[in-house]
Each structure stands twice: as C-alpha cells, then as structure tokens.
Amino acid sequence: MTVGAPGEAEASAPVTPVRRLQVGAVLLLALALVVALALVDVTLGTSDVGAGDLLRLLTGGAADDQALAVLVASRLPRVLAALLVGVALAVSGGVLQSVARNPLASPDTLAVNAGGYLAVVLAAVVGVALPLAVNGLLAFVGGLAAAAFVLALSRGGATGPTRLVLAGSATTLALGSLTVLLLMLFEQETQGLFAWGSGSIAQTDARTLAQVAPVVAIGLAAALVLGRRLDLMALGDDAATVLGLDVRRTRVVAVLVAVLLAASAVTVAGPIGFVGLCAPVIARLLAPLVPGLHRHRVLLPLAGLVGCVVVLAADILLRLLIPGTGSVAVPTGVVTTLFGAAVLVWLARRLRDDARPTTASAGTGAPRTRRRVVVTQAILVALVAGAVLAGLLLGDTMLLTGDVANWLRGVSGRGVTFVLDQRVPRVVAALLAGAALALSGSIVQAVCRNPLAEPGLLGITGGAGVGAVLLIVLVPGASLWAVTGSATVAAAATFALVYGLAHRRGLSSDRLVLVGVGVSAVATALITVIVVVTNPWNTVLALTWLSGSTYGRSLEQSLPVLAALAVVVPVVVRSRRELDLVALDDDTPRVLGVGLGPARLTLLACAALLAATAVSAAGVVGFVGLVAPHLARGLVGSAHRRMVPAATLLGALLVSVADTVGRTVIAPGQIPAGLVTAMIGAPYLVWLLWRTRRTVGL
C-alpha cells in the first residue's frame, strides 16, 4: 500500500461486483474475534475473581456476590467502554480519511481529540458540575473547531499527508500546551485528568456509557447513510458532481458526524490515541482481498470491529504486561498510541517519493548585505543582554539593577541574595538551552532540507526526555552527569531510529517528518508510562519534563549544555560550507568532494548532543529549533556562516523571554517556559502552513 488518497484504489467501486458471502464471512470473523477478546478481557483484573467464577455466574450457577459485584461495577463497564470507544473512533477515522482522501486523517491528526480534551478540562476548571450531555457538547464543539481549522490549513487534506499531519500536530501542540497549563494551574479541580488525558477506559459504573451509547448509535447510523455518498466522493469531486452529488454539503455533514463520534469517545474515555488512524487503515488493507469490501457501508462497520479489536487487545496486553494495580493506573490509550504510531511510521515509509524537494532555505533565504547582517547581529546581542537583565529583575519579587550590582559584588542583603541565588541558575539554564536547541534545529533543517523540521518533530527531544525521566525515577539521586548521559544516549538512539526508518532509497524530508511525529508520540507515551507506573501520584514530574521548565535548576545543571556548545560550535563553524552544500541536494556535495554520509552523521550527532543536554537542563522545550532558524534566515539570509549565529542568539532570546514571562505574569504561580514557547511556536508553524497552503509541497 502506497500512501495516497484512500479513494485512488477505489475508483472502480461502483462497477466492482459484491460477493456478499465473502463480505459476510469477513464481518463474522471480525465479530467473533471481538467477542473472544471481550471474554478474555472480562476475566482479567486486580481481584481474585477468575474466569471460572464469571463463567458460573453467566451460566446461572451458584450466585457469588463478589463475582457479581466485580462484573457489574468494574469489568463489564470497562469492556463495554472499550467496545464503544473502539467503534466510535474507528468509524470517525474512516469517515475523515474518505472526506480528506488521505490515509493519515484521523481524530488525532486532525486535532479533534485535542480540542475535545481541552473543552473537558475547561469545564473541570470552571468547577461547575455540568451534566454529561453538556460535557459531551463542549467536547463536540472543541473537536469540531480544531478539525475545521486543520482541514482549512491542509486544504481538506488535498495537499498531501505531510501537510495534514504537520497542521494537525501544530494545532494539537498548541491546544495541548493550553491544556497542560490548565492542569498545572488548577491541580485540584483537574485531579485525575492527566492520566485520563492519555485515554482510560476504566469505568466505575455503566451510567456514562448508557447516556453516550445512543449518541454513538446515531452517529454510526448517519455514517452508514452517508456510505453511498462517500463511495461517489472516492471518484473525485468532479466525477461525483457530474453524478449529482453535492460534494461540499456531503463533506460538511461527514465531518460533523465524524467529530460527533470522536467527541463521544472523548467524553467516555478521554483522547485514546491513534485508534481512528490504524483501524480504518487495517480495514482498507483487507478491502482488496474481498470484492465489495471497499464500499463504505461495509468498510465502516469492518473498521468499527477492527477498532474494538485494537482497544481490547491493548487493554489485554496492558493487564498482562503490568499485573496488579499498575494496569489500572496506566491509561489504555498509551498502548494504542504505541500501536498507532507504529502504523503511522509504516505508512510514512511507504510514502511516495514524487513530492517536490524542499530545501532548508526555501522561500526565506534571500541574500543580505554585510552591513545589514552586522547591524542585525548587534541588535540581537543587545536584545539577549536585555532579556538576561529582565530575567534577573522580574519575577514574583521585583528587583532593581542596583540589587543585581550589589549581588555581583557580594554585598546584597539577605532577601536579594536569596532571590538571585534562585533566579540566576534559571536565567542561565534558559539562555543556554535556547541557544543549544536553536543550533540543533539549524543543523537538522539543513541536513533534512526541510524548513519545518526541528529536534522536537523528529523525536530527538522526546527521546532525550525518556532517557532523563527513566534514570530519575529508577535511580533517585542520580548525578547530574548521569542524567545528562542517559538523555544524550536516548536522544542519539531515537534519532538514529528515525533516520534509519525514514531512509528508504534515499532520504525524503516528508517521510522523515512523518516518522519523527510517530516516534515523538511514542516518546510522550513512554514518559507517561514511566511516571504513572513508578509514581502515579507525581504527575508534576511528567508535566515538568513534557512542558519544559527551569524551576529548581542549579548552575551545575547547565554545565553539560555549556560543554556541548563548546564542543559543537567549533565543529559547526568549521563545517559551515558543508552545511550550505548538504542543504542543497545529494549530488552537489559529492561533486565538490564532500563525503555526504560522514558529514550528515557528524552533524546529526552534534544536533542530538545539543538537544539532549538542553532537555537535561530545561525539559522538553518545543518549537525553538523551528522558529529560531526560520527567523534567522529571514533576517540575515540562508548562508550558514551568517544564519547560525543569528539563530543561536534568537533561540537564547526566545527561551529567556519565555522563562521570564512564565514566572512573572501569574506570580507567584508559574507557567513553564516550554508552554510559552509552544504557544508562540505552534501558531508560527500554523502561519507557515497557512502562507504556503496553495503550494504543492511543504
């Protein structure tokens, strides 16, 4: 299967004969698998009630109050929730893929789940006990708004899978940053929503399911009614219009139905990841084997059954791998995210290589005069100095420049000394982490020839976060250099994995970004698992690493970043010509005698080192590696001897300002610096996508 429009292989759908017996057999086999998995899942749990007890109860044997209580209050609602969520998300994803004619469309990649999750968290923050129907309506409105925005950015998915995923990822990160901010500021009001935010099918009773089930049934019926119209849309807009179909109205109604189903799933179990992506893809892979299976009135029910299989299998796997109460704490959505991300990577590896190549300097690297470059660099240095001074003066306690001068001379009062002893390490950490991330992003964009690539989108910072968190929770009191080393090794291994998976008959920038998004999702899921399993009550640890914060940092924690910069900066200065050549194409460096393989390997190793040390000092701070190099090319041109210093200064400026703003605007409360940079970087990426939405490539 080559990634393309879902309808491309279905153009002959109306004339393909339907073999009803074979179609029925496939559906019955899928249903039998769902029933078998449901029976297995209902026998698993933390109590001593086993399969024999439940079998006697279900066959009318001797009544057992304990078995009955376990079945009615816990296990049966959990299994029913898995079935309802699996069907809703899978059918939603199937409809969205058909509407967008894009196999990567889903409630996740279109930010439907993120919009619904944000709406539910907002309702919890308000503190008003809202009826379930109102919560569901809020999730529907939030998901619909997010999906409409992403579809507008990607022109309904017509511009290709990469733009759709990038637009959805940017919107998801922006909405996710706001959600995390609310979770941190209103910890009491949103208690328990962190794990739920990864998708949990645990239910205390069946009341929620009973209220949501009719809505899901209506959505499923509406999707089946739309089946014939979706078949016609697979022929293309022009052909469907000739056959009498109102394409625009059908597309709007289909999106409304898909969002209704996804919002219902979010209301029940939170945003369970990637079920809406992988279930329809699996169903479509089966479609060529049986004539008629591709028709939506058959394909959507099959996708729904596959969705049930995915959620039930994930829940069973979770309970088998993590026995006891640990399986209750870990959200089922974490496992589905791991599985769905693998499907995303598989689809990305099959991406066609016929897209127009994109260079790192595309559209933004016009030459600048030497005078302008010098003036720009001087202004940036002054701005960074001003940001450092503002970082020292502003916060929950306002200081004067004289206080800082006295502290430097060692004659400040006790109060000023205490404040600056806490504040200076944070300012230094923000400054160095921003510079390292910007330099890392500059390298990654040049090597990948993609102006939208950055360490976060390629999984480097996520992998570094996994390595750091894993060592912190497994080895309490681990030394600074041990944490940095763990983060560095994990970052290098993660990017090696991304690069290896994306390198198929050459390096495709589109494929590299898509693989990176999938691996980043895996990294986030792994951090959630590590924290929830080892310390389920300490969600602040996960939020700190996932959102990026300089809180509680010491000067020693910035030493690895300083050391990495000291090592990498000379390498980049010496390799500035290689960076210019590598950013062009594969042939030019070889013609001019540059070893493309060794140059790429060296530069990417430097990028991974910078990102890893930055994460060990400030957590996962996103978008700095995207925004800073892009702005630098606009200011001083694309030549790396000019662009890299400007990007490094801009990165330091961005994180410094973000850290100062985060600990000042709601003092004594604090907003992590990573959330502030995400709120800046995500809209910036959205703006880039919107500005180029009419182009074919990125």
Describe this entry's structure for a reader.
- There is one protein chain.
- This protein has 698 residues and is an all-alpha fold.
- The protein has two domains: 8-349, Orthogonal Bundle (ABC transporter involved in vitamin B12 uptake, BtuC); 370-691, ABC transporter involved in vitamin B12 uptake, BtuC (Orthogonal Bundle).
- The chain contains 29 helices and no strands.
- It starts with 19 loop residues before the first helix and ends in a 7-residue tail after the last helix.
- The model is unreliable at 7-16 and 354-364 (pLDDT under 50).
Distance between the termini: 23 Å
- The CATH superfamily of the largest domain is ABC transporter involved in vitamin B12 uptake, BtuC
Task: Please count the helical segments.
Answer: 29
Biggest sheet overview: none
Number of strands: 0
| Count of separate structural domains | 2
- Class derived from helix and strand content: mainly alpha
The CATH class of the largest domain = Mainly Alpha
Short description:
This protein is mainly alpha-helical and 698 residues long. The chain contains 29 helices and no strands. It is 71% helix and 0% strand.
